[in-house]
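Because discrete structure vocabularies remain unfamiliar, we first show an illustrative case, written as a sequence plus integers encoding its fold.
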Amino acid sequence: MHTAPMTHVKSNARRLKSAGFMGLLACLILFAAAGPLNGQKPKSPSSKTQTGPASSAAPVRVAQPHGHAVAENDWRQEVMNNSSAPVTIIEFFDYQCPFCLKTNQAVEEAIKNHPGKVRFVLKNLPLSIHPDSALAHQAALAAGEQGRFWEMYDLLFANQDKVKLPDLLHYAQQLHLDVPQFKKALESGRFRHVIDDDWAMARGLGISSTPTFFINGQSFIGQLSANRLNAAIDEALNPGGLATATAAAGTVSIGSLDLSRAPARGQPQAPVTIVEFSDLQCPFCARVTPTLRELLKQNPDQVRWVFKNFPLDFHADSPLAHAAALAAERQGKFWEMHDLIFANQHNLKRDSLLADARSLNLDIVKFTADLDSADIKRQLEADKKEGEGLGVNGTPAFFINGTSFSGAMPIEQFQVAINNALVALGKPTVPMIPAVQSATVRKEPEISFGSPDSPITLAWFSDLQSGLSPKATLLVRKLIDSHPGQIRLVFKNRPLEIHPGAMLLHEAAMAAGCPRQVLADARSHHRQSSERQPQ
């Protein structure tokens, strides 16, 4: 898993502003009802036009390469065009990300294991730590304009360290493209807006790393194995059903894990054990920690949380941070150090960790000795090896009574997994406590537009993944347009449990600007509409 900070994001703010509140909701509802997040319509194999699969731009006429016919459709293109498939896999990817490369074979295997059942959608997410990646993404789209997207896709992944402009021009020649046209597309930034749009979507969904997958709305962060993908597809095909043969690989026996030295919170005899493989420098691990604390509060007798060390190779300061936490554990202060480290992730150097130890009133001589001890180093290596043996390749990774989960899941998803584990043991489940009952939850302003003095207030409780939402959107918009200045609309989030992707869609709506910027734009649009009415 890659956890690069989300910097240098070129959001398409102008397009968002022009859409307004209703436009944003309509777009979200429509892509939810259609399934994929791809803005283009699928094309038949005989189509004369083709755009890059990740493109949300208008179709572009395919130019015939000099002296060569357009290549036949790749099997992946047929999967991408399979709009009737019951499962949609959306991947946010980066051509220079090594984890994306490692996952490609697993994606292919999982899709081929489910013929006709999967639609595959690509979204461009070149990370700022890969300075050449953005141009590589444009090159693939420019090749797609000439019918050679997948060939360029494969070349770019096969040569991740060679994607500068001269390299890209060489690949264009190798694929017999119209090189002047290809070069012009790159130099003019013709496809840059496609990448900007995908980046804006990623920001709205809270994505800042690659690869990130959405399988029928459920998110998966980091490199995935074929077994994990197979299990996720099977679950999407049979939500709530019994585990299939391919899903079995995603389950391990808790008894096979060595928890003897692992720090833990919760009742030792709790029926449900959550084993977390965590990286103390990973922002997603920091993000999920309050959720795990809340789970313990809501399930005081049912859940035990066990911590396993899994410092990722590309987080240079993480091993020392983990050693510091274990050194604090030797003095009974693991969780206190754990929380301090997450609160100060931007500075995990030795001096800072020693300062944290002093703030906890630890014996600094002993702490320093333990920090550098071979025993702690062995414990870290053992946890890492154990995680790798279980297929962990990103953080946070969880095993809930043996069933594997990945990513900073929302509390609702954790609670469903906990209740499923309790049901399997024949024990009563725990009802969900609505977040609004917590005194620590910040109350956001309501999502609305229209004057508070309007004679009619319309409260709209909506699930953005519901098949009825598109019709409701058109009806609401028609009502507002036909009664200018008379209706105040209040939108209420009501994602239903039967729609597994609904919660994510509603979070995207909020993250994309509701209720602040989009609400302001909606009010501006409302005023403009009123001014156009005859006085």
User: Anything to note?
Assistant: The chain has a mean pLDDT of 77. The longest helix spans residues 13-34. The chain is about 45% helix and 10% strand. The two ends are 59 Å apart (CA to CA).
